[in-house]
Design a protein that fits this description.
Layout (H helix, E strand, L loop, with lengths): L13 H6 L11 E3 L2 E3 L4 E4 L5 E4 L10 E11 L5 E9 L4 E7 L2 E6 H7 L7 H9 L6 H11 L1 H5 L4 H12 L12 H11 L8 H19 L14 E4 L1 H29 L5
Antiparallel strand pairs: 1-2, 3-9, 4-5, 5-6, 6-7, 7-8
Length: 274
């Protein structure tokens, strides 16, 4: 293997590498087999629990106000369950969060999530101060946050419970584990606890993570920070074999559980009497 302890390039300086007609910035880590370069490629994933900002032109095809700018976070729980969420920037200054569940895409307005995750007794003023902190002289950020908060009036959602009911009523039919006796508010809490920001347990931590994503997205759009390189090793991690087997086992057990639940419901609806 190139640059290993048994390699003749190990420990050489840049000048010595050039003298051997090698790249002066040689990193090594790959194999030469029968004169051909070979590399063992493992499954590469985005770094967990870190918001990455990037630009992709295909995002504009999602809707009328969508722009190429987004911030994405791969949230990973302690048991290695992962859920990737993407915060899209809209041309009017608003934000919308996308998540994928059972191969379907769902969009939730940023205001609805922030309001549903608010600490008890907090108001829209609290959201405004958290997002605009330190940028009171930058009118652009204030205008963007005002547009974000205006969704509350458009959707007639003015409380935490109303936002939870809004999410629960629209997603209860697609969430696995939701029972008919659960209210829309309980389904909304189920969504926040099981699907979104799974690496955080407390609502306050989930709220802070959402605020960080919005702040980075606004800074990225304004040119105050550069986009992250998704191909950089600093923004990646390796999916190990044990982790992959664990995820496959978890999915199979979940499918068996759902199948058993469906059969039980069917039997209860059509009882058989001897």
């Amino acid at each position: 293997m190139v640059s290993s302890k048994n390699c003749n390039l190990n420990g050489l300086s840049e000048a010595e590498l050039i003298a051997k007609r090698e790249d002066m910035h040689e990193f090594g880590g790959y194999f030469i087999i029968n004169g051909n370069e070979r590399i063992i490629r493992m499954l590469i994933m985005n770094k967990r629990n870190y918001p990455v900002a990037f630009e992709r032109g295909s995002f504009m095809n999602r809707g009328k106000f969508f722009t190429p700018y987004a911030v994405q976070m791969r949230c990973v729980r302690d048991d290695l369950f992962a859920q990737t969420i993407t915060l899209h920037y809209l041309s009017d200054g608003n934000c919308s969060l996308k998540f994928i569940y059972h191969k379907q895409e769902f969009l939730i307005p940023a205001y609805v999530l922030l309001k549903a995750l608010l600490p008890e007794g907090a108001t829209d003023v609290y959201i405004y101060n958290r997002l605009v902190k330190g940028y009171f002289k930058n009118r652009q950020v204030g205008d963007q946050v005002e547009v974000l908060l205006s969704d509350g009036h458009k959707l007639s959602l003015f409380s935490q419970e109303a936002c939870l009911q809004y999410m629960g009523s629209r997603l209860r039919t697609v969430l696995e584990g939701v029972t008919p006796d659960m209210s829309d508010t309980e389904v909304g809490r189920f969504l926040l606890e099981r699907i979104l920001f799974v690496h955080c347990r407390a609502y306050r931590d989930k709220f802070n993570a959402m605020v960080v994503m919005i702040e980075k997205l606004y800074a990225f759009v304004a040119g105050e920070c550069l986009g992250d390189n998704l191909d950089s090793q600093s923004n990646q991690e390796v999916l190990l074999g044990g982790h992959l087997y664990g995820q496959l086992l978890s999915e199979k057990l979940f499918d068996l559980l759902i199948g058993a639940k469906a059969r039980l419901i069917k039997d209860l609806k059509n009882p058989k009497f001897d």
